[in-house]
Design a protein that fits this description.
Among the domains are: 67 residues, no CATH class; 94 residues, no CATH class. It starts with 9 loop residues before the first strand and ends in a 9-residue tail after the last helix. It has 345 residues and is an alpha/beta fold. A hairpin with a 2-residue loop joins strand 1 and strand 2. The strands form 2 sheets. It has an 8-stranded mixed sheet, sandwiched between helices. It has a 4-stranded antiparallel sheet with strand order 2-1-4-5, with helices on one face. The longest helix has 18 residues. The protein is globular, with a radius of gyration of 21 Å. It contains 13 helices and 12 strands. Helices cover 33% and strands 22% of the residues. The structure holds iron/sulfur cluster. Iron/sulfur cluster binds next to loops. It is found in: Cell membrane. Keywords: ATP-binding, Cell membrane, Membrane, Nucleotide-binding, Transport. This is Peptide ABC transporter ATPase. Belongs to the ABC transporter superfamily.
Amino acid sequence: MTSTDQQAFLSVRDLKVHFSTEDGIVKAVDGLTFDLEKGKTLGIVGESGSGKSVTNLTILGLHDRHRTAIDGEILLDGKELITARESELEKLRGNKMAMIFQDALASLSPYHTIGKQIGETYRKHTGASKQEARARAIEMLKRVGIPQPDMRVDDYPHQFSGGMRQRAMIAMALVCDPELLIADEPTTALDVTVQAQIMDLLKDLQQEFGTAIVFITHDLGVIADIADDVLVMYGGRCVERGTKQEVLRTPRHPYTLGLMNSMPTLDGPVDVPLSPIPGSPPSLLNPPSGCRFHPRCSFAEKVAGGLCSTEQPALEVVGGRGSACHLTPEQRQEFFADFAVSRHN
Ligand code: SF4
């Protein structure tokens, strides 16, 4: 992450995304700031409902504009997206920025061939002829590792395996060489072998094109594999950020530590039992007072004056590294030492 006085390729400042529902206002994202450079990957990690997917739908302008109040700033290569017209966003989507989702089958139309769907995206943004679009679709299928692309280009999505559909969706997302790719849990539904292949593919494509990637996941193992920088979200807020090495080697927030200790790894210590984080993610309609993590935090009672349940800790960031927690560095050092933090190093 860059310091705030540099202009990053993607710059998000104090983003707030609030929905109105029949039950009240849902504060899905509540003051989020981050930067992303070209050619780098930012991993956004958190449980369901932490605000990570909403953040990215908002960047793409895919939220319901009538029921959503958005505040803050999203700059993509200097262009403000929050105030952009739908027609402008339409031009940017698929061209300058693209997204791949978890469920390729739901994202691809079952009525059209894979080649037509990739080709149409290309034609829409470049004005290419049908023949040129078909050639481009074949080239993209080849690039993402589909065997016999000149034949498979005429297949329908149901004729592809799950891994091949995911590759086809990546081909569609990258057909116009976007500079920003948002990947929302793109490998969650795949088996580990295919997952590893897709991750390698994304890394190769990023090297080739210099794409900036926002990678959303609940899996710290995936973050360890692909991210340069990490942003940990909880209850619509960033609770910790830093480089991958900083966050995974020396976590500063009890929630990050909890995530690490609740996930198995292939090379982690076998004698350290997994310990799931107790409780459930907070309601964003009526979030807990103070630190939103306090009802689940094993360290809350160690902070003097009951501060955790009354005062929201500020996210203090120095040089891109930061966390939002009332624990002092000395307390953190003392308390965290008892917990296994080496699983994902
Ligand atoms: Fe836990 Fe308090 Fe830190 Fe929140 S502020 S994470 S409740 S110690």
